[in-house]
Write a structure and sequence with these properties.
heterodimer; A: about 240 residues; alpha+beta; two-stranded antiparallel ribbon; two-stranded antiparallel sheet; 9 helices; extended; B: about 400 residues; mainly alpha; 16 helices
Chain lengths: ~240, ~400
């Protein structure tokens, strides 16, 4: 019995926070992702992504034509997304900058963003795009509390404005806060909305099939439950004389 | 129509033992009538094997086993191949579900003494299947060529290099190169798609033949062949077809409900079935902060890390990890109990079995976490409990106070 008590204690100890793995210091805001209900948000995010991010990043597994899944027809894709002349509707999203130049400019090649939402997660991306601040000690002039010493410059500073990092020392404890120093063309609420749209889009781009997958899932499960009732009835009938 | 069918069957039966096989292994093969929930998992394992084979075949039609193209080809399957995303999720979910089903199948064996005489060989064949399954899963995991694929393979193959004398050359033989590379991917692909599946199918066939030779065990652990009627049919036996086929069909549908719920609604299961870091293309230049195997290998990984190095070599950990798997082979001879089934065992065995289960789950949990001094101490204690279950078994099963076994099976 003592062995069991010891084991129970061990298990209780192991229930201690598992956040030791990832950088537990960094708090991530919860991203209000909604794929199913908000096609408009996804379209806004697509426009933001293709006009701002594809300058340096690529999304080589994503085709422009897949934007049809979020309610854009071919005309809208060509017009709103501003496809370059030589790019077909079925082409993959290439970056405007070649990888070598980017690596020279920023120290590291900008990663492909096709499945970034699946590796980093929506919360991380949503937080990351809102936590850049001016840091003159960095080569590109920017730093980020979610990704310290990131090589990426803040390309949306015209929208959000410039944030700075304020460090307050209260009773031996350091409290870091991001404060908007120079406003951008969007209010904080508008910018936050834009980043929700962008995050939504990145989640969609990570797994475009997810939108349909849920609908299909309900139909499949419905079929299986009906099948279960039938198969169970059959089993009962076959087994009625046993015991 | 029926006459045509009967004639066709007759034509085949004159040239192939169709009816005789049907009778011997289905309609006149007798299984214990007191099978419970724990007896579904063998049939489900066969179902998952078929699911993996079929989904794997179609994945192979579009997958490119080349280090430069593998990751992109998986995304191509996910996005551009019609129904490709279903195939991918079926295969990744199926891999994890295979281990869920197999671990429960093995646990049934532990609980009811299914490894005991006359089923020792059946158990050994099953353990060989388990080893083959682990190899298959390990090699399959390299194929998407994500960060976890690459680095997980790097860590595990490096373990082989710790084997004294032959280690260095052994690791090169496995990798086909000095590091995990395109050569490794190609040979793992060949083994994963052809060699090991052929082995699995063949050994599953042998497993079922061995089972049918002695008949199934049952939750009471008594031999139903001891009491037969005047026709030689076990009194507590019922024909596999249609009874067990009908019952297994219900289990299969319930399994498919769980399976499809995962595939359609949560294929990653929070990163346990499809790991987040594996959506980053494998990069030899960038070591991930945290390398851990998929959940089904984590108990053994925890044991590996718990053992301290000896003379600068990690080989003792490798030996302990291997021993943790191989020790299962010896169960039929470690168990000296008078009864087979946990239903009639005494309190000592039940305590040890419960402790074993908790240690397995605990080690699995620790194997997912990074190694810290506290966790290492915990892992050592749990590893000790794990091995104690087996090594002390000859002693505690002999002194345990068992209850008398019934003569006939008990139902409900």
């Amino acid at each position: 019995m003592n062995a069991i008590k010891k084991l129970a204690l061990l298990l209780a100890l192991m229930a201690l926070p598992v956040t030791a793995i990832a950088s537990a210091e960094i708090h991530l805001d919860s991203a209000p992702v909604s794929l199913q209900k908000d096609k408009a948000s996804l379209q806004r995010g697509a426009k933001l992504f293709t006009s701002r991010c594809l300058a340096c990043h690529a999304a080589t597994h994503m085709r422009y034509s897949r934007l049809r899944d979020i309610g854009m027809n071919e005309e809208q894709i060509k017009k709103d997304i501003e496809l370059p002349e030589d790019v077909q509707i079925g082409s993959k999203m290439q970056s405007g900058m070649d990888a070598n130049s980017a690596k020279l400019a920023y120290g590291v090649a900008p990663p492909d963003l096709s499945v970034i939402a699946r590796s980093r997660g929506a919360d991380w991306l949503y937080t990351y795009m809102r936590t850049f601040y001016v840091d003159t000690s960095r080569p590109n002039g920017w730093n980020n509390t979610t990704f310290p010493n990131v090589g990426m410059p803040f390309v949306l500073s015209d929208l959000q404005g410039d944030q700075i990092l304020e460090v307050e020392k209260t009773g031996g404890h350091e409290v870091k806060k991001l404060v908007l120093k120079t406003p951008g063309s969007m209010t904080p609420v508008e910018y936050e909305r834009a980043i929700v749209d962008l995050t939504n889009y990145l989640v969609f781009m990570g797994d475009p099939g997810e939108i349909n997958r849920h609908q299909m899932g309900w139909i499949v499960l419905g079929f299986l439950f009906i099948l279960l009732a039938l198969v169970y009835g059959l089993k009962k009938e076959i087994w009625k004389d046993i015991h | 129509m029926m006459k045509l069918l009967t004639q066709l069957i007759g034509w085949i039966d004159a040239r192939f033992p169709l009816i005789a096989t049907w009778k011997a292994h289905l309609s006149e093969y007798y299984a214990p009538k007191n099978f419970n929930f724990w007896y579904f998992f063998g049939g489900l394992a066969l179902l998952v094997l078929v699911i993996q084979l079929l989904s794997g075949i179609f994945l192979t039609m579009n997958y490119k086993p080349d280090a430069q193209q593998a990751f992109a080809s998986v995304e191509y399957i996910m996005r551009d191949v019609q129904g490709g995303w279903i195939l991918r999720y079926i295969h990744s979910t199926g891999a994890s579900m295979f281990f869920v089903v197999v671990y429960l199948h093995m646990f049934r064996g532990l609980m009811y003494g299914s490894y005991r005489n006359p089923r020792e060989l059946l158990w050994i064949i099953g353990m060989i299947l388990y080893l083959a399954l682990m190899a298959e899963a390990f090699m399959g995991y390299l194929l998407p060529w994500g960060q976890m694929s690459f680095w997980g393979a790097q860590v595990i193959v490096n373990l082989f290099s710790s084997v004294p004398f032959i280690g260095h050359d052994l690791a090169i033989l496995i990798r086909g190169d000095f590091v995990i590379s395109d050569a490794t991917l190609n040979r793992f692909f060949a083994l994963h798609v052809i060699a090991v599946p052929l082995l699995l199918v063949g050994i599953v066939f042998v497993h079922i033949v061995a089972l049918h030779a002695v008949g199934s065990n049952n939750p009471d652990g008594i031999e139903i062949k001891k009491h037969k009627d005047e026709n030689g049919i076990p009194l507590d036996g019922i024909p596999f077809f249609p009874y067990m086929v009908a019952k297994d069909a219900v289990a299969a549908v319930i399994f498919l409900i769980v399976f499809c719920a995962i595939i359609f609604f949560a294929p990653e299961i929070g990163g346990y079935f499809l790991e987040d870091n594996n959506f980053v293309p494998g990069n030899p230049m960038k070591t991930p902060e945290h390398i851990a195997p998929v959940w089904y290998f984590t108990p053994y990984y925890a044991i590996l890390r718990a053992v301290p190095p000896l003379f600068g070599s990690q080989f003792p950990g490798v030996v302990a990890m291997g021993a943790a798997t191989l020790i299962f082979f010896f169960l039929p001879w470690l168990d000296r109990g008078k009864v087979k089934s946990i239903r009639y065992r005494g309190p000592i065995y039940k305590t040890f079995l419960a402790a074993f289960v908790l240690s397995f789950i605990g080690l699995g949990w620790l194997g997912m976490l990074p190694s810290t001094p506290t966790y290492t101490v915990l892992a050592r204690m749990l590893a000790a409990v794990y091995f104690a279950f087996f090594l002390l078994m000859p002693w505690y099963t002999r002194i345990d106070k068992c209850k008398p076994e019934p003569e006939r099976v008990t139902c409900k």
